[in-house]
Amino acid sequence: MQPIVETRDLYKFHEASGEKQAILRGISLSVAPGEFVCIMGPSGSGKSTLLHLISGLDQPSAGEIALAGKDLAKLAPDERTLQRRRTVGYVFQFFNLLPNLTVLENVGLPLAIAGTGPEREEARLKELLARLGLAGKERSFPHQLSGGEMQRVSLARALAGGQPLLLCDEPTGNLSQKAGLEVMQLLRRCRDDEGRALLLVTHNPRDAAFADRVLFLVDGELATERELRGPNLAVEDVHAALAALHI
Ligand SMILES: Nc1ncnc2c1ncn2[C@@H]1O[C@H](COP(=O)(O)OP(=O)(O)OP(=O)(O)O)[C@@H](O)[C@H]1O
Ligand SMILES: [Mg+2]
Question: Is domain 5-244 annotated with CATH 3.40.190.10?
Fold first, then answer.
C-alpha cells in the first residue's frame, strides 16, 4: 500500500549565531494510510520542524518527502499548497488561529479555501465544536478564549476538512487530564472509524500509548532501536523507552 507520507534521508539545517546547525539528520519514516504514529523527543529535538517539512510548509535542506505518493520537491509551489490542503489537517503547537475570524469562521476556513461553502456545512461544524466542548463559543474570537479552548478550535479546524492525514503537534499540551483524554479518544476514533492516518507529537506517555507505533527523535535522529509497536501499547513501555533514552 502506498504510504500517506514517506520521508527519505531528511536533513534540515538552521543558522544559529552564524553557525550552521543540523536540526534533523537523516530522517526516514513512513506512515501507512490509517496508521497512528507518535513521535516523542526532548524539547528542541526537531519534532515541530519535522511536521512543518512533512506538511510542505517548510522545505528540507536535503532529502525527499512524498505526500500521498507525490514528491513535494517536484511540485510547483501552488501545486504543493494544493497537495497539502488535500492531504493534511494540521493541529499547530501554537494554534495559528486567525484573530479577526470567529471560532466558527476559523473552523470553516479550510472548507472556504477549498471552495465548499462552509455555510452549507454549518450544522456539521457546530456539531464538531460541541463534541470538543465548545458549544456556545461559535461567535467568539480567539482572544476571548483560554489556551485550551484555542487548542480545541485548532483541532476542530484540522478535523473539519476530512483529510486523510492529521498532523497533531502537542494537541493536548494545554488541556486538563480529562479534556486531554477526550481529545485522544476523539483522535483514535478518527483512525478507527474514518481510517485517517495520524502523526502525533506529544510529551505525554499516556497520549503516546494510543498509537500503533511510537518513534523517538533524539538529537535530530530517530532512535530506531527503541521504536515501540502496538497494538495495545502500555504506558509503562513508553516510560521505560523514555528513561532508556534519558528523555
Ligand atoms: N527558523 C529557525 N531558525 C533557527 N533555528 C530554528 C528555527 N526553527 C527552529 N529552530 C531550532 O531548531 C530546533 C528544533 O526546534 P523544534 O521547534 O522543531 O523543536 P521541538 O522538538 O518541536 O521542541 P518542543 O518540544 O519544545 O516543541 C530548536 O533548537 C530551535 O531553536
Ligand atoms: Mg515543537
Answer: no
Q: What are phi and psi of 224, to 5 degrees?
A: -65, -30
Q: Which grid cell is 146? A: 483560554
* Atom in ligand 1 nearest the alpha carbon of residue 16: 4
CA 226 → CA 94, 134, 203, 241, 244, distances in Å?
29, 38, 16, 6, 9
Biggest alpha carbon–alpha carbon distance for the chain: 52
The closest-lying atom of ligand 1 relative to the alpha carbon of residue 52 is: 18
pLDDT in tens, 177-224: 999 998 999 999 999 999 999 999 999 999 999 999 999 999 999 999
pTM (2 d.p.): 0.94
- Write down how long the chain is: 247
Cβ–Cβ < 8 Å for 138, 160: no
Q: Whose CA is nearest to atom 31 of ligand 1?
A: 44
Domain range list for the chain: 5-244
pLDDT in tens, 48-65: 999 999 999 999 999 999
